[in-house]
Fold this sequence. Notes:
It is a single chain. By secondary structure, this protein is largely without helices or strands. It has one domain. About 5% of the residues lie in helices and about 10% in strands. The protein is built from 1 helix and 2 strands, in the order ββα. The protein has a two-stranded antiparallel sheet with strand order 1-2. The longest helix has 5 residues. The two termini are about 25 Å apart.
Amino acid sequence: MVGYARLGPEARPSRSSGTFRRRVFWLLPHDRGTDPKGLYAAGAPAEAVDPRTLAPGSKGCKTERSEGGPPSSAMRELGMGLPL
């Protein structure tokens, strides 16, 4: 688990279960950070979002970065790049 957010009482319930109290964010063993040449070497799962777009009360968004590139300016400053 990477993190979670507690949802307020006005949050809409899940269609599948009818209830929820938090959003949970996690990485799996086959995700890009753990397995850079694996299944998501290019692209990302349908539910993946750029964590920089997360904010209270709003959904995260897909960005070019969340789909595999280009690296953020912070990564470039640290000499890091995304896997090819």
